[in-house]
Amino acid sequence: MNANLLVEQTLNGFQLGVMLFLMASGLTLVLGIMNFVNLTHGSFYMFGAFFTAALFKLTGSLAVAIPGALLGVAALAAAFEATLFRKLYTRDHLDQVLCTVGLIYFCNEFVRFAWGPSPLRAEVPLFLRGSVQLFFDITYPTLRLAIIMVGLVVAAFLYWLIERTKLGMLIRAGAADRVMVRALGANINFLYTFVFAIGAALAGLAGILSGPIYAVQAGMGDNVLILTLVVIVIGGVGSVKGALIGAVLVGLLDTFGRALLPTSISDLGIYVLMAGILAINPRGLFQIHGAKK
Amino acid sequence: MTESKLTYKRPPRWAACFAAAALLTPAVVVAEEVRIGFISTFTGAQAMLGAELLDGFKLGLAKSDGKLGGQPTTIVTGDDQAKPDIGRQLAEKMISKDKVQIITGVNFTNVLLGMSKPVLDSGTLLVSLNPGPPSLAGKGCNPHFFSVSYQNDGVAEAMGEYFNRKGIKDVYLLAPNYPAGKDLMTGFKRFYKGEIKKEVYTQFEQLDYAAEIASIRAEKPKAVFYFYPGSLGINFLRQYTDAGLKSEIPLYGPSFSLDQTIFAASGDTPLGAYATTFWTESLQNTQNQEFVAAFEKAYGRLPSAYAAQAYDGARLLDAAIKETNGKVDNADLLAQAIKKANFASVRGSFKFNNNNFPIHDYYITRVEKDSKGRTVMKPLEKVLSNHSDAYAKDCLMQAQAAAPK
Amino acid sequence: MTANAVATPLLQLSGLVKRFGALLATDNLTLSVQQGDIHAVIGPNGAGKTTLITQLLGNLRPDSGSIIFDGCDITALPAPVRSRQGIARSFQLTALFPTLTALQNVMLSVQAHQGHSYRFWRPANEDKSLIAPAEEILKRVGLGGHMHIAANSLSHGQQRRLDIAMAIATSPKLLLLDEPLAGMGAGEAAQMVAFIESIRGQYTIFLVEHDMDAVFSLANKISVLDCGRCLVTGLPDDIKRHPEVRRAYLGDSHVN
Amino acid sequence: MSAVFSDPIMSSTLMSRIAGFRPTQRRIAICTFVGFALVPVFAAILGEPFYVRMCTRIMILALAALSLDLILGYGGMVSFGHSAFVGLGAYAVGVLSFHAAGGDYPLSGWLGVFATQSALVAWPIAILASSIAALLIGLVALRTSGLYFLMITLAFAQMLYFFFVSIDLYGGLDGMQMSGPSTLPYLNLGDRNTFFYVVFVILVAAYLFTKRLVASRFGMLIRGAKENEHRLQCIGFNTFPYRLVCFVIAGALAGLAGALLANNEQFVSPADMTWGKSGEFMAMVILGGTCSLVGPIIGAIIYVLLEYWLGNLTTHWQMLFGPALIIAVMFGKRGFIGLISKENT
């Protein structure tokens, strides 16, 4: 494991970590504030990639396709939230899991129905193709560097939104005690829909960014979903900071696990990590003080 | 039919009758009609493989205007969802309810293994259009089982031979962590004499190969021999090209890693890679050119090896049923007719080994753009001719001149 | 000190401290409860009464100080062990098994003190050793006619009585009552006071209550709590006249 | 001490108004089991033996769903990894039959005695294996609750899945062909109808056992723990060991279901242990109706028939199946049982 390989693997770990953070940040807020187990989050990731590919085929320019796709995913999420999910907030996790699994079946099959079984090509803008010469003689794919950059920018934006704005305070309060927030007269429905739409848009962005790396195909959201849930539980439900730390931790562990350990052990790595953390601290690393179970 | 009225006196009673009545849908059966059970994967991530197989098979049928051996033929399709238990349930339904004589299709080895016992035990013929697992080629060979496509290790053995011929000193091996992946790598190592830098198996559904590509860059091997079918192949090719390694370390793979299903969504990332295969759309023989033209006219895209295997399957059955002049009820007789395999295969030469696996030629090809700008696998040279698989010796069945049972 | 000082107290709290961040909920509390007493604890809202009861049963662990019950130190023992040693508690916000019937709720309490529950075969609903005591206790709290009604479809008053019935069903030595009269109408409150009177002597009762009439009619020992500290413990008449108590309750201006 | 309150005491005979078991549910259970028993008869009349094998599979999945309802419906432990125990039971039988077939991997020494096809040895081992797994997983998982419990059970199931994927000896991801059905003295389990009735007897026995279990003192405690675990501790119960024992019992039943599944399918693969399969069991419990034990059995019937019918209808059947599941969860308040028996236990 020479120095170049170490740097490259660390960058790979960060890239996976950042992508998982985009997925986990939205979902951990939805879980923390609404105590809603939303397994359909993986489908927003998929729709993000598919909308971009479809819009690009239509308009021919990514500058239109990407924002269009994000808006499309956010609108779709708001629609799901207003019609179906809002009724589920009071139900227990079992109903929520089954409803959202049913929605996964529907979304995967709908995408296959609309765009056909074979994967689509995710277009990459010219300046992001190929790889770039970093310090020493490390070459690293430009696209993955861009993903890390975008991820960090989004993380900064989320940190600012959550920690510094009034809306962010409302979100953090909601994560800690949603009953009290409602009692204080905050417009809870708007908050829920807004958090949901933001979460879905972030998942869509993760889908757009990873479309070129992974094939854009029906069902692409499912195994990312499992990784995202692991990240959220490690980081502590409802905590965006926990999601960031958890995501980077899982990203690095998964990447180095695959590089160093035989594949059968590296597969188990993430789950052993999660089981270990939960065994020590049954509410994850950065549990929100006083958050409901 | 049961004559007991479904009484609705008390609602809970219909719960049980609901269960029993729901199952009574008898199927109308016409003797002497050829009924083919086509079980493949039509949903899920690998749905395109099922579509390719079915399209190829239907084209093969269309060549003898929808009949096999002059008999009216019906195809009963079933979606195994890439799950062994669903595949098995469909097979049993088709055997007992739809009374099929032949079951074919099947993309995945685990689905094939899941259904092979009940199908073969029931005396029905099982003709695999894609997986050719060692367990059915060696000790587990069966007179009613045929693999029209290949034996899994064949293309890898051919690549090993080609590496020896080209004198490639060391190689980096990469495949998913499932039996077909391991079979291929053992096949390659069976022939390859040089040094193996590293042999890495990745998780089956894994799509991001950044970690593996980084370690390839560090190892600096002369060549990479990788096996990633379907969407796995698309991702790997894209990521390998993005990492800028394609110019430094050439890619070699079996036909499943580099075929039309991959080219469609990969743009120009596969160009310059080498693949060993037993068939390519550029093979110059009349029946192949006719098949490729017909496929492109019918479906608007170039056929992949899966479609060619399915087409061969249909033509094989047509010739066999013609041989038994239309009779399909005697499975042993039909099996022997199939074993004769006197049909014009799109691969050129095609014979069955004693274990009912194909003996055919293997070529080395390079992925290039053809005159019309389409990405194709251009055959360079023949690597192995009339190559038979390594497991045939373990199979106790005799070769062609098997005494009729 | 009072007349029966010589008998060792059933419950001895010494130097109990419980802090929630900056808030000092229990401030170096020392208190003892004699066997057979009805020992009332009064004090303004936020004096730390419920926190005290929660620490007595073991749901909250004090930061420092000790709890001696029936001669042994139970400070570190978890709630189930303390309950088996004879402490039972009723809850201000009733804590019942909503979809189980009243009878089943009380049967669970009885079951808890009849050895282990790894009995997998005999139906509990036909188990005389559970049903008889449960029915008897339900009749004593006046729920004889509501035995087979689910707990969540009982009235508020009935639920409170069921809550106390479940506490009694564990045949405790010390019964912690957390504002049993809260939210009750006059009639029901009178019935409840009469009931507590009826069980005087069977159990040592540690009563937290705001209703002064009930407190002074029932209790033979009263402690006054304020800001987590125990101002004074004494007979009801002494407490009435005690200046500290008047200031804590009626505010400074009324002290004459 | 006569009761001070003079409440009119309505004397009601205890037996007739016992909260335990509502008659209409008993009748549903009897109908279902009679319906199952008649299936081989119908199949013989129609000459469609396929239905016997399919119904056997339904009954086996019903057994697994029944065991899930024990912890999920009655115990309130929403486990998302129940298929791991089914898979483990199946693999236990598969591995023993693999070694029993001898070939090049016979078990040597004292282990040899286990390499057997006999159900009397293999099935108890399957039950033991999944019970031990349930014990170990329960020890860690039951210290958490809610979403964390859901996730940790999912994590352990994924661990078991990847464990069996990585063992090449037993076929890895492709799974393993069984060399033959388990053997029982006097009974040929290879015969479709015999195996059907063996599974039928096991399902009825499991149903009666869990019915008694749920009404027993142990069952009352488990149900109490779901309703208000805090109060249970305040009245003297240390709830953790009891919930762990319940989790182990459910794991054992699921292991038995796995052993039967291996025999029914004659094939064992990690595909039986994916999180998708766990989701299927949860769907069966919900569709049938939680907290009723007969509910999951009917849920299994509904689920398999729905999957079979819709599968034949269109290749895009999951576009219909997804919404059907959503509607069942959203509007059926307690699934099939809630629909028709109009009362809860």
Beta-strand content estimate of chain A: under 5%
- Secondary-structure content class of chain C: alpha/beta
What is the number of E strands of chain C? 10
Range of helix content of chain A: over 70%
Gyration radius of chain C, in Å: 19 Å
CATH superfamily of the largest domain in chain C: P-loop containing nucleotide triphosphate hydrolases
Question: What about the largest sheet of chain C?
Answer: 6 strands, mixed
- The secondary-structure class of chain A comes to mainly alpha
**How many DSSP helices of chain C?**
9
Low-confidence stretches of chain C: 1-5
> How are the strands ordered across the major sheet of chain A?
1-2
Q: Which descriptor suits the 3D outline of chain A? A: globular
CATH class category of the largest domain in chain C:
Alpha Beta
Mean pLDDT across the residues of chain C is 85
CATH topology term of the largest domain in chain C: Rossmann fold
Number of domains of chain A: 1
User: Which protein chains make the most extensive interface, counting residues with beta carbons within 8 Å of the other chain's beta carbons?
Assistant: B-D, 45 and 52 residues
Radius of gyration of chain A: 19 Å
Task: Summarize this structure briefly.
The complex is a heterotetramer of chains A (293), B (405), C (256) and D (345). Chain B is an alpha/beta fold and 405 residues long.
What topology does this entry show?
The complex is a heterotetramer of chains A (293), B (405), C (256) and D (345).
Chain A lengths: L2 H32 L6 H19 L2 H27 L4 H23 L15 E3 L5 E3 H23 L1 H11 L1 H6 L4 H23 L10 H15 L4 H21 L2 H18 L13
Antiparallel strand pairs in A: 1-2
Chain B lengths: L12 H9 L12 E7 L6 H17 L3 E2 L2 E9 L4 H13 L5 E4 L3 H13 L3 E4 L5 H4 L7 E3 L6 H13 L3 E7 L2 H13 L3 E8 L7 H10 L3 E4 L3 H13 L8 E4 L5 H4 L10 E4 L8 H14 L5 H19 L7 H10 L10 E2 L5 E12 L5 E13 L18
Parallel strand pairs in B: 1-3, 1-4, 4-5, 5-6, 7-8, 7-9, 9-10, 10-11
Antiparallel strand pairs in B: 2-3, 11-13, 12-13, 13-14
Helix pairs in contact in B: 2-11, 2-12, 3-4, 6-7, 12-13
Chain D lengths: L22 H24 L3 H25 L7 H19 L18 H23 L5 H20 L9 E2 L14 H24 L1 H18 L4 H27 L1 E2 L6 H14 L5 H20 L4 H14 L3 H7 L4
Antiparallel strand pairs in D: 1-2
Helix pairs in contact in D: 1-2, 1-6, 2-6, 2-8, 2-9, 2-10, 3-4, 3-5, 3-8, 4-8, 6-7, 7-8, 9-10, 9-12
Write structural notes for this entry.
The complex is a heterotetramer of chains A (293), B (405), C (256) and D (345). Chain A is an all-alpha fold. Chain A has eleven helices and two strands, in the order ααααββααααααα. Chain A has one domain. The termini of chain A are far apart. The model of chain A has no long low-confidence stretch (mean pLDDT 84). Chain B folds into two domains: 219 residues, Response regulator (Rossmann fold, 3-Layer(aba) Sandwich); 124 residues, Response regulator (Rossmann fold). Helix content of chain B is 38%, strand content 20%. Chain B is built from 13 helices and 14 strands. Chain C is of the alpha/beta class. In chain D, α2 packs across α10. Classes of the chains: A mainly alpha (293), B alpha/beta (405), C alpha/beta (256), D mainly alpha (345). Chains in contact: A-B, A-D, B-D, C-D. Chains A and B meet through α1, α5, α10 and α11 of A and α2, β8, α8 and α9 of B.
